Amino acid sequence: MLTTRATLDKHHTDVASMFDAVAKRYDLMNQIMTLGAVDTWRDLVVEAVEPEPGQTILDLAAGTGTSSATFAAQGAQVYPTDISTGMLAVGKQRQPHLHFVAGDATCLPYADNSFDAVTISYGLRNVEDPHLALREMLRVTKPGGRVVICEFSYPTWAPFRHIYTKYLLAAIPAMARLASSNRQAYDYLAESILAWPDQTHLADMMAEAGWQAVAWRNICGGVVALHRGWKGNADAGSHRRNDSTGMKEMA
């Protein structure tokens, strides 16, 4: 179990065990911690992925398959994949029509050029080697395909950023005490948000991994950022664009 303060040095077995322990109430905690905003954020991910009938989509860190079910409802063939077998087991109970796959984002069990789109929400910061995971995502994406990453990030307005980091994140473990039996897991999750790179640095990581035309969109003032990139889609300008030239920021 992860009992120390969060860093970017995470072992995949520790992360898997942590999510196994919170699997049954994980979706409920997401609703509580985000005050229901997670549903809106999920809709924005779907909008960015643009699923269509016949497309193949890899949904990484899929957990219980809530987001995967949304892609499947659009007619896409979705592969919900997660390192936590506990999360997958709960997902199979709730979404029996989905084909859940146990897999590590740093060593994906898929062939090269398999997917039209790859997406991961609130999971990349928990991967043992995010740089390797970004390269693996690129490997399994078809030429011309896209990646969509939704992750907690940094508010762009300094006064709110101070309040968010000093006070709001402290509320996550407090709320976990009310609705979860595993406070340590949510201590870690709160701290992992603070340890994660900001919007610009994640865009740089994506470009370094080989993704092109990288853009991001700030959601709720930057509390969450939605990054998107393309494989083999030549871009005449920089490989990194902020939301003023790429994805429009949501108020």
Automatic annotation (TrEMBL):
Keyword tRNA processing: no
Residue numbers binding S-adenosyl-L-methionine: T64, D82, D104, A105, S121
Keyword annotations of the record: Menaquinone biosynthesis, Methyltransferase, S-adenosyl-L-methionine, Transferase
A GO molecular function held by the record: demethylmenaquinone methyltransferase activity
GO biological process per UniProt: menaquinone biosynthetic process; methylation
InterPro entries found in the cross-reference section: SAM-dependent_MTases_sf, UbiE/COQ5_MeTrFase, UbiE/COQ5_MeTrFase_CS
Database matches in Pfam families: Ubie_methyltran (PF01209)
EC number: 2.1.1.163
Pathway assigned in UniProt: Quinol/quinone metabolism; menaquinone biosynthesis; menaquinol from 1,4-dihydroxy-2-naphthoate: step 2/2
Record has Transmembrane as a keyword: no
Family classification: Belongs to the class I-like SAM-binding methyltransferase superfamily. MenG/UbiE family.
Its job: Methyltransferase required for the conversion of demethylmenaquinol (DMKH2) to menaquinol (MKH2).
UniProt name for this protein: Demethylmenaquinone methyltransferase
Organism: Cutibacterium porci
Organism lineage: Bacteria, Bacillati, Actinomycetota, Actinomycetes, Propionibacteriales
